Amino acid sequence: MPQMQNDPNQPQDALPPPEAAPSLNWRRHDPEARLGFRTGRFTDTGLYLPLLIGLFLGALAYAGFFAIRESTVGQMLMERGQIPYFITFLTTWSLGILWVKSMKLKLQRKALQLPIMPSAADYVLAPRTAPIILRRIYAMVDNPRHFVVLNRIEAALSNLRNIGRISDVSEILTTQAGNDDDHMVSSYSLVKGFVWAIPVLGFVGTVLGLSEAIGSFGGVLSKSEDLANLTIALKDVTAGLSVAFDTTLLGLVASLFVQLLIVTLMKREEDFLHDCTEFCHIQVVGRLRLLDADQPAAPAKN
Fold first, then answer.
1. Number of other CB atoms surrounding residue 274 within 10 Å
2. CA of 248: how far to CAs of 37, 83, 87, 195, in Å?
3. Which residue, 73, 122, 182, 212, is the most exposed by fewest CB within 10 angstroms?
4. Residue 126 to residues 10, 158, 159, 193, 293: CA-CA distances in angstroms?
5. Distance CA 28, CA 146 (A)
């Protein structure tokens, strides 16, 4: 990027520092890009890193469960068929998605702390000064389109010379804010699907357990001739009922836990998007003056 010459009409802090290294670098600071994985946009996640995190957490969890396999929780997770394994895997995969999203959200928040606009209270943003701010942004980040607030500001300032009214700039920022809200909601689609699938797996385990229990009970009635044999054979029936009720309980508890984490993270992300909107209105719309030396004044009316 060519080095800019000082403009005597602008405050010195309006200029980006020459040859400055970017304060935020997407490839170095994004958790997925840093490890070479394909990244999602903004706080969205790719597929592979959360999946690997889920597999690791699942293996770690069952290593711990094995140590307590004789307890009620250990038996519920390790002696109730295959359904608890699938429930655990979807739960840990969900945790991987939410953890990566939380790390991405922290990175996005750092962009709000950048001194994008000059600190002078009387600084005026106009079509002739917009390129200065854009160069200032590019001196601080490697690519502003990876960051929510910087992407909004770049979209507004890049079209500033083609805009006639401040309300048009505000409309651009509002449209961008709506798009970001929609993208934020859609970024939770996969993990919300897991929240739906986890209790369904629990109900599948219930059906399988009840089927096993009823089948065993029918066999007991047909083969047992006395009460002693009947009592012993009923143990197989109760084992099937344990599978039925334990998998349902496990699925409901796991889905509730993940749902609470989703709600908490979505609230944090909504607060962040609100802060981005407030930042843009204060730092961009609030400083904007479209009628300056670069534009002819409107003719006076008699």
1. 12
2. 35, 10, 10, 14
3. 122
4. 12, 12, 11, 46, 9
5. 12
Alpha-carbon distance 67 to 18, whole Å? 59
Q: Are 92 and 256 in contact (CB under 8 A)?
A: no
DSSP character at residue 127: T
CA distance 117 to 135: 11
Q: Which of 198, 206, 238 is nearest to 85 (CA)?
A: 198
Q: What is the DSSP letter of 30?
A: S
Helical H segments across 30-82, by residue range: 31-34, 48-67, 72-78
Report CA torsion sign: 41, 45, 49, 51. negative
Helices 227-283, 166-186: inter-axial angle, 10-degree rounding: 170
| Cα–Cα distance measured from residue 135 to residue 160, given in angstroms and rounded to the nearest whole number | 15
Residue boundaries of the structural domains of the chain: 17-287
Could you give the count of Cα atoms lying within 13 Å of 297 in the half-sphere of its Cβ?
4
Pair 105, 42: CB distance under 8 Å? no
Q: What pLDDT tens digit does each residue of the chain (302 aa) get?
A: 334 444 434 444 444 444 455 689 999 999 999 999 999 999 999 999 999 999 999 999 888 888 877 777 777 777 777 888 999 999 999 999 999 999 999 999 999 999 888 888 778 888 888 888 999 999 999 999 999 999 999 988 888 777 767 888 888 899 999 999 999 999 999 999 999 999 999 888 877 777 766 666 556 556 555 555 566 555 655 655 666 678 888 899 999 999 999 999 999 999 999 999 999 999 888 888 865 434 443 443 44
pLDDT tens profile 270-295: 999 999 999 999 988 888 886 543 44
C-alpha 101/C-alpha 50 separation (Å) is 9
